[in-house]
């Protein structure tokens, strides 16, 4: 699957503005903990990176129909991480 990234004014992937690396986004997309529909035909994926960060990745289908377009990715706030962990414990019990 082809993965493209939204770019900032400097031409860098927008995710770098949030101190997120491409490899971390790929970790989350390869092994999501949760997936939900977002607005405007987007998908929200929450997952852990190999380094242990919990990220929220927002992506949409590519306009050309070949892969996905990552809009943004950022650390999940601590309060939302605690809620995620509660949900995961309930699912696993």
What do you see in this structure?
With 93 residues, this protein is of the alpha+beta class. It has two helices and five strands; from the N terminus they run βαββββα. It has helices at 22-30, 78-92, and strands at residues 3-5, 32-37, 43-48, 54-61, 68-75. It has a five-stranded mixed β-sheet, with helices on one face. The longest helix has 15 residues, at 78-92.
Number of helices, counting only DSSP H or I runs of 4 residues or more: 2
Structure summary, number of beta strands: 5
Instruction: Note the overall shape.
Output: globular
Helix content: 25-40%
**Helix vs. strand class:** alpha+beta
Distance between the first and last residues' Cα: 34 Å
Strand order of the largest sheet: 1-5-4-3-2
**Rg result:** 14 Å
Mean pLDDT comes to: 95
H-E string: EHEEEEH
Sheet having the most strands: 5 strands, mixed
Q: In terms of per-residue confidence, which ranges show pLDDT below 50 for 5 or more consecutive residues?
A: none
Q: What proportion strand?
A: 25-35%
